[in-house]
Amino acid sequence: MSKISFEITELGHPIESTYDYLVKLLQERPSLPSGTVIHTDYQTAGRGQLNNSWFSSPRLNALPSIYLRLDRPLQQIWSISEATALAVYKSYKEQLSSEDTIEIKWPNDIFVNGHKIAGILIHNALAEGSVAETIIGIGMNINEEAFPPELPQAISLHLVTGQTYDVKAFLRQMLRHLGEQLARQDYAALHAEYNDLLYQRGIRARYCDVATEEPFEATIQEVSPQGQLVLTTTTGEERRYAFKEIVYL
């Protein structure tokens, strides 16, 4: 795969969501170049997974949405999520001390010291057995100084290290990592690296099966190459879940 050239468009005004802005822009301009990045200093209605909102104060965090045409085979669709999560992971890892713990929480949240520091939202459009288009929305907490009480799990890089960062420089570095990770051809190695960084892997914890509403204890073994979370229950039963089919308790 050839190297991706990213072009950042900085919006000089608040918008509801860079993700929604990019979707609308793509409808108006179907020939939008791959590598287009929309960024703003402030979103009034940022989007997270499962229709959740994304909290961010003005000018303190990186909130990009990225358009890509990767033409990747359908059987490798999960590698896009893995590459994106690893790119964000590496961007934070460079700024942390050896005493800090940073992990990837399936499917693609980044956790530092047990708290959520970044979230990723990915939409893939399919055509003729391949991934034709991808939109990636990322919320990266960088200089946020405080979060509302209803977000007890949230944290920022500033709250971890006590330092203040150049948000746009952090974004550019993340895009460099993203280009490198998406260009990797050894998908098995990419997948193994993702699994090595998996949050709660090998630790017994409580979960809930969304379909049956059954709470249960299990241990995460891995994420499959298709993106399913693979767990073993306390009775030795193996269970596999796709996104939205299981909840961490």
From TrEMBL:
Domain BPL/LPL catalytic: 1-186
Enzyme Commission (EC) number: 6.3.4.15
InterPro entries documented for this protein: aa-tRNA-synth_II/BPL/LPL, Biotin_CoA_COase_ligase, BPL_LPL_catalytic
Keywords: Ligase
CDD domains in UniProt: BPL
Cross-referenced Pfam families: BPL_LplA_LipB
A GO molecular-function descriptor: biotin--[biotin carboxyl-carrier protein] ligase activity
Cellular compartments per GO CC: cytoplasm
Protein name in the entry: Biotin--[acetyl-CoA-carboxylase] ligase
Species of origin: Porphyromonas uenonis 60-3
